[in-house]
Structures are given as C-alpha cells and as structure tokens.
Amino acid sequence: MTRYRIKQTRSIIGRPESQRATLRALGLRRINQEVEHDGSPQIIGMIRKISHLVIVEEIK
Questions:
Q1: What pLDDT does 1 receive?
Q2: What are the residue ranges of helices labelled H in 1-60?
Q3: What angle do CA 30, 36, 38 make, to 5 degrees?
Q4: Does residue 60 carry a pLDDT above 90?
Q5: R_g (Cα) of the chain, nearest Å
Q6: Average pLDDT over all residues of the chain
Q7: Helix axes 17-26, 41-49, angle to 10 degrees
Q8: Domain extent at residue 26
Q9: Region label for 59, one of left (φ > 0), alpha (ψ between -120 and 50) or beta (otherwise)
C-alpha cells in the first residue's frame, strides 16, 4: 500500500471550519509539520480537500 508524507505549508487562519477539522484529523497542527499516512480512500479524500494548504509526497 502506498504511504503519503503530508506537510502543512499554509496557515489555517481565515479558513472554513471544515478545512481546519480536516487538518486536525490528519494530525497537522503547525506550519512545516509533517505526518505519514497509508493511502486509504479516506486519507486521499482529505488530501484533496486541503490540497492548497499542504504538500504531499508518495513514499514507496
């Protein structure tokens, strides 16, 4: 299964609550913080929802 490294690059100030909640659900709290997750459909959907706030890398 593919793993993803997700790094928050932009602030959540002024963002809708749903985007804030998505970042929190992924485990991101600060700018430049990185987390790794398996590539499940739920995680991929979260990444798409906040793609403008994060950088995503595939880990093989």
A1: 82
A2: 17-26, 41-49
A3: 140
A4: no
A5: 11
A6: 96
A7: 140
A8: 3-59
A9: beta
> Which residues, 6+ apart, have CB-to-CB distance to 46 below 8 Å?
22, 25, 26
User: 9 pLDDT exceeds 90?
Assistant: yes
Quick one: CA dihedral 10, 15, 38, 2, positive or negative? Answer: negative
Read off the pLDDT of each residue in 14-25 and give the average, rounded to a whole number: 97
Amino acid at 43: I
Task: Give the count of domains, the chain.
Answer: 1
- Could you tell me if 3 and 56 are in contact, meaning their C-beta atoms sit under 8 angstroms apart? no
CATH code (residue 26): 3.30.1390.20
